[in-house]
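Anyone opening a protein record will find just a pair of labelled lines. A complete record is shown below as an example:
=====
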Amino acid sequence: MAMQLPTSVDVRAFVRRVLHPASKLGKTTLWFGYLALALEVLRAILRSPSGTMLSGWASFISALFVVFALLMGLRWARRKLLWRLRNRLIVTYVFIGVIPLMLLVAGALLAAYLFAGQFATYAAMSDLQSELQHLDATNRSLATQFRALARDGKLNQQLAGEIASASDENFRHRSVSIWEGEKGFVLAEPAQATMPPIKASPALPGDFAGFVLDNNRLHLRAVRRVDDGQRHLTIVSNLPVTAELLRHATSELGEITLFPPDEETGNKPSAIAGGQPAYKDRMSVTTKAGGSSTLTIDLSRNGASGPKRVEAGSVPPPSNSLDVEFPFATRLDVTAWESGKSFNGLLLVDTRPSRIYATLFSTLGQNAGIFRDLLIVIAVIFGVIELIALFIGVRLTRSMTKSVAELYTATQYINRGELQHRIRLRTNDQMAALEGSFNSMTQSLSNLIAEQKEKQRMEGELAIAYEVQDLLYPDDLSGLRGLEVHGVCRPARTVSGDYYDFIPLSEDRLVLAVGDISGKGISAALLMATVHAFVRAYSLEPERTLAAVAAGAGVPQSMVLTANGGNGNSHAELSPALLMATLNYQLYRSTPAAKYATMFLGCYHSGSRLLTYCNAGHLPPLLLGVDGQVRRLETSGTVVGLFDDVTYEESAVAMHPGDIFVAYSDGITEPENEFGEFGEERLIELILQQRDQSLVRISEVVTTAVADWIGGGEQPDDVTLVLARAR
């Protein structure tokens, strides 16, 4: 896949982040960068040499800028590296599992190395100490025998040699120096017979046994002083430390090297003027030996002068690929024979674990392999357990990070609006439950959006229905001769189930219709539109409409229309009771059984100021007289649309100029709060207080009072108010 080059937008964004950092560290780094650049430019212009104040400040500020820039880089790398949960878990696992295991293994290896090294050096030192103790014990025995000979005056070189020869087979190259007073002789091998006797060091009074450095050679030496009256006897047994002695003492442990200290330089590298080595090809190592003393070891093989190191044995071949070679060293206390000062030498053992193991379990014989095999089995078991733990940890980490990655990818899909994306469930754990919850949430979100769209569609349709229904309500007919009318309806929802209408039949006749459809919402609004159509049709075309309907309902033709002309002309006039019966007939047959409506129909004749009305279960309208008298139009019947073959009564009431007709729905009087219902009395009181105002103003006062009575709660029912005032 070809590498995608950064776009100009990416470059501009990067430059913007660099030049306008958001963090305090970024701002500090930027300012140090500006300052360092300015100082470097100034130094170049002034050609300031190194060592001046300007150069020093420029270098210091530049160094600070580099430090802060590195910190910024580390922060950026850490953020990039640890952004993914997988990387965080890997780092956590490394710090919790891998690093402690590595430290444990390293500690075990270090402990094994220290143990093996200490055991190897201890075994070598034990063998040498054993040789020294054997030499000292033999020297004490010889001193006892020589004292007896000296007491009898029989101590001479021949007799002493015969006594000492009995122990020569245990000590090759041993020499015994015998001093009686100031006279002495030496007992040694023929090759060493000409060497002078070793004189006890005046710096070491009393008995002595230890490692000594004499004439740049390392020796095992034991001194025994015997005082018997006038006789002073001193026996000095000396055994030079040679490769043969080391090989005999340390058996087959490995390569053993003894580095004696340099007596001439006082445990410091010898030097000449100018700091050059005192002899050619000399290599020495100086270490602290405790306190203020130091240890200088000559590591050269062929030094021209100085103490000679002693080597014996060789590193055995490896028994397997893990049988590595390792060296270990320990200190060796060495006494300078002439001065009596104590120095530190070095015992170096170069061996292999197999030789350590063989030496350690040598007493077990053939059973030593059991312990080896047991250790191998334990190591294999631990290794298998670690591999299983590693495998389980990797599997758990992968499953967890894979689930988180899929969740993150799913959120990207959801962010792009692809709500159909689902996460595939592969396990049965808490992460799978989280993925299932995410899928459920996505499905719920998809359903919610679908419901929201459906709701918006329905709200749009309801808005259209509201506009259509609003057109069904009539305009106020303020210009009608003899009667001023006004109506208002405030739906509890988008559309209303309440109905009112003003239908002018002529210049002096008007039909007032007020109704309340059962239920709320769309169904009530649709039934309201049906009622509106029926009432309009029956009122405006009574001859064509009512005659046919009445005939179907069994109503005599003579009851449909009556002649009633104020000026003597004969014309058709509507009967409210018959209109109500016909409306009941139609609604009963065209609507469900549970649907019905309360209805008030009134026909007002302005010439006679007579209101003829019929009420089908609606709240009784009020007639508020000019004198303050309140009359209720009590004549009423059952609701329309619920029962068949229902007849209705009608009544007439005269209105005087200034009388106010009030028809309303239960949405005005029935709303409740903590003080109870709004009530009819409060409605009458408000209208009487505002009776001199326009009908529009009276409607506003009443509807506002009802809204205040409801408060912040939901409007429980449609609020409808119809007012008419006689002129």
Observations:
- DSSP finds 15 helices and 25 strands in the chain.
- The chain has a mean pLDDT of 80.
- The chain has three domains: 20-81, 105-269+282-360, 473-562+570-726.
